[in-house]
Amino acid sequence: MSLLNIISLALVVALTRAGPILNNPSRVLRRDAPAPSAYPLDSACGNEWQYLNFNTTVATDRVHLQTLHDVICGGEMRAISSYGQISAQNVNTPYKRYFPESDDEDDYPTNVKDVLGLIAGASSTDGAIGTVVGTFVVDNLDFAANVPGASDCTVEGTLAYTLEDQVDDLEKIHFCDLSWTRGEASDVDCASLDPFPSTKMDSFSRIALHEMMHYSSIGPNTPVGETIGDCKNGDSEPANDPPRVHGLLDPNQDDNPAVTEINADSYAWMSLDAWMSQNCIAGSDTNNWASFFTQNPPPYNE
Predict the structure, then answer these.
(1) Where do the record's region annotations for Disordered lie (predicted)?
(2) Of 13, 31, 72, 178, which residue has the fewest beta carbons closer than 10 angstroms?
(3) Who's near 301: CB < 8 A, 6+ residues apart?
């Protein structure tokens, strides 16, 4: 990374694992904290993530368990992460909307491909998803109060977070109520989309992929070499939707390409962009799926 990029990173980027900061959160002590389990409603698929604090006698919990199971075992997470991986490998339009091309110092496409490859996995014969996902834990409890300086689901707009719980010493994902309002990517009406990527194509799988990026077993175990967090744009607001994620890279906006590979939503929106493009492209253009969105997102400050 060049000196200019390092200086730029220090000036305009703030990394956090959980979003806005709360002052002096109280610590909630739990005795004999339960251990994570496999999918409790039926047989788990290969490398499915683990579950904690879900009550299978509660209808809402059962619905959420089914959603979490389906996003892995139904193949959507592998499909989205795989198309993101393909876009990075080919350095095609979805990739170039959110990430820089290689330069003399950094092979960004390979870095991005390797990160997403951990999620997608090497082969369908190895499981429904990458091996590392089987180590992830989804906690139904809003446990952020146990983590000093972290935010919980009471913070407006928070969809989910990934933190290490200081009570049970587990790194875990929690999905807030707002996240459950997102549907499957395959249910998005292609005809309703803008000519550029927008939140109209958002899905639960995009939120899940974002949180997976935060895990300490992802970024540090790839050429990225560090934890993937949540970066901010030049106006100090989170880069968390297509215009803002694109704005990190855009030379007419933030012009800060070095931070894109440590921003979770850059991976999540690029992968969803790539998958949605191939899903929505019509007729004989299937070989040119990367051209589905004909425009980049508008500037985030418009």
Answers:
(1) 230-256
(2) 31
(3) 235, 247, 253
